[in-house]
Amino acid sequence: MSEKVTIATVARHARVSRQTVSNVLNAPHIVREETRLRVEDAINTLGYRANQAARQMRTGRSRLIAARIEPTRDGINGSVLDRFLHGLTETADAAGYRVLLYTASDDEREISTYDDLLGTYELDAFVLVGTKHGDPRTAWLAERDVPFVTFGRPWDALDAHPWVDVDGAAGTAGATRHLLAAGHRRIAFIGWPAGSGVGDDRRAGWRDALHEAGVDPTGLHRETEDGIAEGERLMRDLLAAVAPTAVVCASDSLALGALQAIRGTDPPVSVIGFDDTPVAAAVGLASISQPLGEAAARCVDLLTGVLDGNHETPTHVLLQPSLALRHTA
Amino acid sequence: MSEKVTIATVARHARVSRQTVSNVLNAPHIVREETRLRVEDAINTLGYRANQAARQMRTGRSRLIAARIEPTRDGINGSVLDRFLHGLTETADAAGYRVLLYTASDDEREISTYDDLLGTYELDAFVLVGTKHGDPRTAWLAERDVPFVTFGRPWDALDAHPWVDVDGAAGTAGATRHLLAAGHRRIAFIGWPAGSGVGDDRRAGWRDALHEAGVDPTGLHRETEDGIAEGERLMRDLLAAVAPTAVVCASDSLALGALQAIRGTDPPVSVIGFDDTPVAAAVGLASISQPLGEAAARCVDLLTGVLDGNHETPTHVLLQPSLALRHTA
DNA sequence: TATCCGAATTGGATCGTTCAAGACGGCGAG
DNA sequence: CTCGCCGTCTTGAACGATCCAATTCGGATA
C-alpha cells in the first residue's frame, strides 16, 4: 500500500477542503448533497478511516469505555460476567465505542487504575459490575464527575448514580409462584447470609410469593456462602428438618448442590436455580434467567445518553428476569 | 482542580524544556541525574501523566492490544477464555499495554473489524485464541505484517507465526500414565472427531501412553461433539462394549457426562477431564490443568518482543499442563 | 447595477507529544 | 590558542484531526 490516507488525502481526491470532509463526517446536514456524495465516494474509494488519536487530541474524547474483568472465582457464576462483557462489547461497538479491560486486586488499586486510565487514555466512561455498601469506587468517580454506570443497584442510595439491574425478587417470586401453581406448598429457599443486597432481594421475592399464597415461610430457608458443597449440605439439612417438596436457590451453584442432595427422592424434589448458567442448561436444571445482553445494552444506552449530553434518558433501569423451565421443575 | 497538566507544565515547574521532560520519560540515560530527579519530582508533585493520544499521534503506536471475546458457547469450557483474558489483561498492564475487546460473528466480519481497529485506533497487536486449518484471519494479518500471537498452534504450519500453546498430548499422556500406575489397564478415551488439531493431539497422548505400557488401545476410544449429554452417551456405550476401568476425556464437559454414566459402578470407574474448569473443581472431578495465566503472560512476552524490535525472543512456546488430582481419579 | 444575506467553503491555529537539528559550555588534543 | 567533540539541553516542526474566523459565491432585494 502507498501513503497513509488522511483527511487531506480525501480532501484532495474530492477537490474540497479538509474542513468539508470533516463536516461530512461530523455534521453532514450542513454540506450540500452533491458535495457530500463526492466526499463519501472518495472516502470509500480510498478506504479512509478517521484517526482516533488525532480526533481525541482535539475533542478530548476517546470513545473508550472501561470494564473490569475479575479473576474467575467460581466458573459457574463467573460465566455471568463473561456473557455481560460480550454483550457490552457488542452494543458499545454499535454505538461507536470500544471496551477496554482492566483488573485490580483491591479497591485502592482499582481507584488508582481509574486515575491512570483517565489521565493517560482519557476514558469516556466506566462500567462497574456489582457494588458494595458504601463503595469507595463509585464515590471516587462521582466526586470527579466521571460518567459511569453500574450493573447492580447501589442498595444504600438508589439515586446515587445511574444503574441497570435485574429484578431478582421478581425472579424468585415468579419461580415460587410457578411451584405453587404446580401444587407445591413446602417450598424452601437456599440463599446467602443477610446483608448482601442481591441475596436479600432474592430471598424477599420468595418470601413475598409464599405470603401472597398464604404459606408461612418460617423454617423453610437456609443461608450460606455460595458453592456447590454448601448447597448440598443445606439441602440435606432442609430435607431432614422440614422435608420440602421444592426449593428455590439464590444461585446455580447452590442449586447444583441441592440437586445432588435430593438425588433419589420420590417424588423428586423440584429445584430452581438462579442465573441460568450454561452448566444449568447442560444438566437440565431449571433456572431464573437474567437478560444479560439487554442489561449490557441498557448500560451502553445510559452511558451514551450521558456522554452525548442527553439528559432526557432515565438513569435507572430494572429489567425482568425470566424462568427457564427444565426437567428439575 | 486547575488546568490540565501537560508536559509543558512539568517543564515550567522543573525549569527545563519540554524535550527534557520527554527524555526523562523515554530515554532517562541521556539526562543528567540532577536534572532527571528535578523533573521526576515535578512529575510526582503535579501528578502528570503522559497523554496517550498525543504520544500515539507522534509515534504511531497505541499501546493497545486487541483480543476477541466470544459468545459463551458452553459455560464449562467458556471459563477458559475468561481466565485467559484475565491473565492477558494483567500481564499486558504490567508491560504497559492495555487490552481492547472486540467481537465478530464470522471470519469475514472479524477481518473487517481488524481493518477498522487498525485504521482508527492503530492497534499494536492482536491476540487470537484458537485457529482453524487455513485460517483466513491469520493469513490476512500476516500479509499486512500486523503483529499477532495465537493461543493455540497453527496445526498446518508450525512456523507460520508466533504462538503459545499447551501441550495437550503431554497432558493426556500424563493422566493416562497416572491411571496405569494405579493399576488400570482398560483406560478409555472420549474425544472429538478427528480433524481438529487440539482433539487429535489430546487423543495421541493417551494412545502413546498406552502403547508405551504395552496396552492395545483398539476399541477403547469414542468420538463426539463436545457436551455433557454426549459424554454420558459415549460412556454408557463404552461401559457396555469394553467395560473400561478408567477414562480420560478431551474436555470437562465430556468428563462430567461420563461421571453421570458411571454412577454406581463398583469399583468406581476413574474419570479425568481436561481444562480444570471451576465446575470440575466443584464436583471433585480430576482434570488436566492448563497454565492459562502463564500462557497469557507468554503471549504478551512474544508480542512485546516483536513490538520492541527484539528478535532474539523465541516465537513458539509450548507449555506443560499439570494434573489436578481429585476424588474421581 | 449595487448591495446585502446566508449557506458553503477555506485557511490558519490548536491539541500534547516526539523527532530532528542545533546551541552551549567544558575538555582534551594538536 | 584553536578546533572539534561530547554530553546536555533547547528550539522549531510535525503527527491528523477539529474549531474558529474569514472568505467566496449565488441569488434576492432595493
Overview of this protein structure:
The structure is a homodimer of 329-residue chains. With 329 residues, chain A is α/β, with parallel strands linked by helices. The first copy, chain A, folds into 3 domains: 44 residues, 434 Repressor (Amino-terminal Domain) (Orthogonal Bundle); 131 residues, Response regulator (Rossmann fold), CATH 3.40.50; 122 residues, Rossmann fold. Chain A is built from 13 helices and 12 strands. Chain A has a 6-stranded parallel sheet with strand order 2-1-3-4-5-11, with helices on both faces. In chain A, helix 1 packs across helix 2 and helix 10 packs across helix 11. The longest helix of chain A has 20 residues. Chain A is elongated. The mean pLDDT of chain A is 92. At the A-B interface, helix 4, helix 5, strand 2, helix 6 and helix 12 of A face helix 4, helix 5, strand 2, helix 6 and helix 12 of B. Strand 2 of chain A pairs antiparallel with strand 2 of chain B, so a sheet runs across the interface. The structure holds a DNA duplex (30 and 30 nucleotides).
Give the SSE layout.
The structure is a homodimer of 329-residue chains.
Chain A: H1 7-14, H2 18-26, H3 33-46, H4 52-59, E1 64-68, H5 75-94, E2 98-102, H6 107-121, E3 125-129, H7 136-143, E4 148-151, E5 163-166, H8 168-181, E6 187-191, H9 197-212, E7 221-223, H10 228-242, E8 246-249, H11 252-261, E9 270-274, H12 278-283, E10 286-289, H13 292-307, E11 316-319, E12 322-324
Parallel strand pairs in A: 1-2, 1-3, 3-4, 4-5, 5-11, 6-7, 6-8, 8-9, 9-10
Antiparallel strand pairs in A: 10-12
Helix pairs in contact in A: 1-2, 1-3, 5-13, 6-7, 8-9, 10-11
Chain A binds a DNA duplex (30 and 30 nucleotides) through helix 2 and helix 4.
Protein name (chains A, B): LacI family transcriptional regulator
Keywords (chains A, B): DNA-binding, Transcription, Transcription regulation
Organism (chains A, B): Micromonospora arborensis
